[in-house]
User: Fold these one by one.
Assistant:
Number 1:
Amino acid sequence: MSAIDTLPPLREVIATHGLTAKKALGQNFLLDLNLTARIARAAGDLTGCDVLEVGPGPGGLTRGLLAEGARRVVAIEKDARCLPALAQIAEAYPGRLEVLNADALALDWTAHLAPPIKVVANLPYNVGTELLVRWLTPPSWPPLWQSLTLMFQREVAERIVAPPGSKAYGRLAILAQWRAEARIALTLPPEAFTPAPKVRSAVVHLTALPAPRFPADPAVLERVVAKAFNQRRKMLRAALKGLAPDIEDRILAAGLSPTERAEQVPIEGFCALARAVAA
Ligand code: SAM
C-alpha cells in the first residue's frame, strides 16, 4: 500500500490492467508515488485549483495531484487501456477526477475547467513542446492557466529556462520568459521511469506574469525570433534579411547592432526589434 492513498501500488495497477508501455505514445511511467507527490507539490498550493493533466497513464501523478488537495483534476488520456485504472482513482476521489479519452492536441479543454487553473503533466515527449508552445501563445494574455508544471527531456527544459548568451538560448526561452517566470523545479534520472528512457528529465515550473515583461505584438515577435534563430550563428543583419527592406535601420532603431548575433540579444532587445519592425 502506498503512503499517499489507499489505492493499490502502481506496479499492481499496471499488471492488473496490462499496461505494457507503448513507445509510440511516449509511455514512460512514474511508479513512485512519493515522487509523483513531489511533482504535484512543485506546482504550489493546489487547494481551490482545477488542474489540467495531460497523459495520466496509470495515474501516478493524478493520485499525487488529488492527494495534494486539487479541487478537481481533468485528465486527458489518449490510450483507452488506461481508463479502468483511472476510473478506480475517480471512485476513490468522488467528483474530483474527470477523465477525457482524447488526443490532447485535438481537444479544446477550456470548457472543462474553472479558474484558477494549473497545468501539471508528465508529458509524452513527442507532443510536449507542441503543447507548451500552444499554452504559451493563447489568443490573449494573461492566459487561462496560472502556472504550468511540466516534465521534459532535460535538454528541452534547459532551452526553456536558458539566459541570453547561453548555447540553449533561443525561440523557446524567449517565448517562455517573455510572459512567464520559468525555472527548473527538479531533475530526474532515467531510472525514475518505467521503462527508463535514454535521456534525463526535468520538471519546469512556469508562472504566468500578469502582463508581458516588454511590449511587443506577439505575432511580430514570433516572426522576428524565428528568423533570427533560424541561422543563429549569423549576424542580425544577415539573419533578418528579407524581414523589411531597411532592416539594418530598424535594428539600429531598436538600439541593437546589425553585427550582433541572435543568441546575444536579450528578450528586451527582441521586443524592441519587433516594435521597430512593426512600426
Ligand atoms: N502521467 C503518467 C506518469 O507520470 O506515469 C504517464 C506519463 S507518460 C510519459 C505519457 C502519457 O501520455 C501516456 O499515458 C500516453 O498514453 C499519454 N499520451 C501520449 N500522447 C498523448 C496525446 N496526444 N494526448 C493525450 N495523452 C497522450
Number 2:
Amino acid sequence: MSHPLIVANWKMHKTVHQSIAFAKELLRRLDSMPEDLPDQVICPTLPALFSVASRLRGTPLRVGAQTLDLGREGANTGAVSAYLVREAGADFVILGHSERRSLYGEDDALVAEKTRAAWDCGLMPIVCVGESPDERKRGATDDVIRRQVSAIVETEGDDWRDPMIIFAYEPLWAIGTGEVASPEEADRVAALIRDWVGHLRPEVAQTIRILYGGSVKAENAAGFAASPHIDGALVGGASLDVDQWLALIQAWREVEAS
Ligand code: PEP
C-alpha cells in the first residue's frame, strides 16, 4: 500500500486572507506533530492558489487546483489553463468532480481531455468518479465506475504507460450530505477501479492511488484508513477548519501506524 494522501477541496470557500491564515496556522501546528503523517494536498480557490503555494513552498505540504480549462493561453475569457495553475504553484488538480459534472456540464470526454492537459503540464490529476443516488438505486454503480474510468484510461491509447493519476471514488449521495459510504462499500469500489484499470492497462494498475471522498471526517476516518484498497481521502467540509483537518490527519495516521 502506498503512503496515504489526504486532499482538501475547499471549493468556493475562504478569501485569500483566510486561506493564507489557514496555511500559516497549519504549518505552525504541524511543527509539534509527528513526521510520519499522511501526505497532504490543499486545493484552495484559484485567487488564493498562488499565495497558499508560496506560503507552503519548501514544506511537505502540496497545493492543487480544483479544475482547469483546456488550451495554454489565448482569447479564452475567464479560463485558466493547466499551464497557468502549474505556474501559480499547483502540483495537483482535481478533475471530474461531481459538482463540475453537474453544474458545468463536464462529461467523460471533457474530463479525459483535461486529464491529458494536466499530464502535459506535469500536474497530477485527481480524477473523481462516482454514481448518483438514482444509479445506485438501479444497481448501476459498477457500470458507471467502469465507464468513467475507461474514458480516462483509454484517452492516451497505447502511450498510456506511466501515467501519473489518482482516482477518487466519490459517490454523489455522500458528498456534502453527511451520509457516508461504509468502508466495505468504498473499499469494494476502490478494488473495482484498480481491477478495471488493470484490465485495461495491466502495467499501471499497481501504480495508481485511489482515494475515497464523501463526508470523511476524523470520526469516520479509521474505517477508510484500514481499507486495503483505499490510499487516502478527498475531503470537503472537514478540510475547512484546521482543528478538524488535523484531527482527521491524526486519525488516519493512527490506523496506519498501528
Ligand atoms: C468533496 O467535495 O469532494 C467532498 C468529498 O466533500 P465532503 O467531504 O464535504 O463530502
